[in-house]
Amino acid sequence: MKWFIISILFVCGLANATPPDHLKKSIARIKVTSQDTSYYYPWRWLSPKKRSGQGVVVGKNLVLTLASTVLKSRSISLRLDTEPNYTEMEIVHLDLDANLALLRGDLPSSAKVLKLPKKSNFNRTQKINYYWKTDEGRFLEGSAELDRVESKKSSGSHQYQLWYEAVNASMRGGYGEPVFSEGKFMGLSSSNGSGAEMSVLPVEVIHRTFTFPKGEISTPTAALGFAITQCTQKNLRSLKGLDGMDGGCLVADVYEQGSGSRTLKTGDVILEVGGKAVDAWGRVEHEKHGLLDFQYLLSEVTLDSKLEVVLMRDGEKLTKKLDLGLINDYNWVVSRYRNGESAEYFIRGGIIFQSLSLPYLHAWGKDWRKKAPDDILMLLEEESFNTKSEERRDIVMLSHVLAHQVNRGFQYMGRQIIESVNGEPVKSLEHLSEVLNDLKQEKVVLSFYPDGVPMVLDPRVLKTIDSEISQLYGIPSLSSLK
Fold first, then answer.
1. Could you say which DSSP state residue 185 is in?
2. Within a domain: residue 16?
3. Residues 33, 49: contact at Cβ < 8 Å?
4. Cβ contact 63:55 at 8 Å
């Protein structure tokens, strides 16, 4: 009991320690009001939510923070000290792959720019300090110990980065708190682990994303356009022409955009990347941090750089220049809506049609990969990393039906992928809306993936109740299409 009380007093003391006074004018409290759209009722917005985080003054009227703090924001305000009124801020740049954002606003004249060093120094067991401000303007300090470096990516990102992982954190982090080591800025607390663990996004990643003090976007670095898996099965390695002592991981999938999308093929074995040998688990030996997943190497090279890979393909050892590229989420056939955009939809006679998106599936909760309909998950597995084409720009769904006596019999239909309309493959939501808007047709036949009873509609009859559906269900617009 005695040691328990001492521990509590020690932790509380750290949280209330007096932080360095010179940082007080460089660290700010950020308050955000965010709002998500409903992907089940895509004409609606969900209730606003409030969240907060920390920011660092990095230039004249410029503040650096986490993208996750300001994502989907409707308003952003900042308090530098104990001034009674918040400063309104706006997003200048948002990088979801690095999870960083730059904000601009008319900061108080007392704001002091924090100069960011180009590099950070990681030493295991090294003590770090991180700072934050409360809504009441209190300036607090926490501490932790550096434990290891990991190559990983944040949720939804297309880039792996090197992250510093810390243990024995005295207070919960993960909201953009600036982290220092021996008084030198090291990075931002960007995610919170279990218990007393925390992650730090190093300053090197910040400089690869933005330039200071002007706050401009840096030269883009490469995004991952393929997926790998370990290659440890003895017979598979023999089939690929690999010796027992060879390394090499297996290319499990190649996307239609991003780095490697034109160079690699599914089934290739990657032996080397940028002159570094890759082991069977997809790791390379870092000169300081030991074995790390090799994907971080791509985020450290710009698109105009050269990066060679050594492959084993069909029993032949090849050396190739890896194509380096970015990923545009708007090009995927399955929409991501990472910026919180509203889903596209079209309603005819109470029947809601919309494009398949990841946020729609997230309505099933964290275990959506287990709870969502099997046919949708099966199609997602096939199409998730395919890009839009003239033949298919969207995967179109019959989401659900708003009940009315005219659409009686259809009211229990929903969560179904539309494969064809009148025997022709559905190209997009716009394509389907054009067909249903052609009132010269008496019948429109919808067929579903992978099978099922076709749906036969009379567009003329359905259109007669559109106005009533709009009023009855409070829908301001029956279509988001232009």
1. E
2. no
3. yes
4. yes
